Amino acid sequence: MQIDKIKESSTKMTELTSGIFNASKKIYSSNKGSILRTIVYTIGHFIIAITVLMLVADVSFYIALTDAIVEPLANSIWYFLLDKFWASKVFFKKKK
User: Fold this and answer.
1) Same domain, 47 and 89
2) Can you give the residue range of the structural domain that contains 70?
3) Residue 67, pLDDT above cutoff 90
4) pLDDT at 47 over 70
């Protein structure tokens, strides 16, 4: 009985991971250029942020690296929240 539950759980996870993989493949194949440019931009952002922080703020490489990763993540969350708020205001204006 326990083995059947494990097999069922394993099948569900396989279906889930297979679905995620297939969706990722579809997104990648239809956006190859944009994804590549995004990766290049992100790497460039990390290099620039690390360099500027090390030169201007005189911090260690690891602190600069942490900031170069954390700061864009915080900005993306802020942008997402701002966009949701903004879109809700524009949507309600159009409805009136």
Assistant:
1) yes
2) 32-96
3) yes
4) yes
pLDDT at 70 over 80: yes
Neighbours of 50 (CB within 10 A): 20
Alpha carbon distance 32, 25 (integer Å): 10
3-state SS record for the chain: CHHHHHHHHHHHHHHHHHHHHHHHHHHHHHCHHHHHHHHHHHHHHHHHHHHHHHHHHCCCHHHHHHHHHHHHHHHHHHHHHHHHHHHHHHHHHHHC
pLDDT of residue 94: 65
Residue carrying the six token digits 């539950």: 5
Cβ atoms of residues 46 and 62 within 8 Å? no
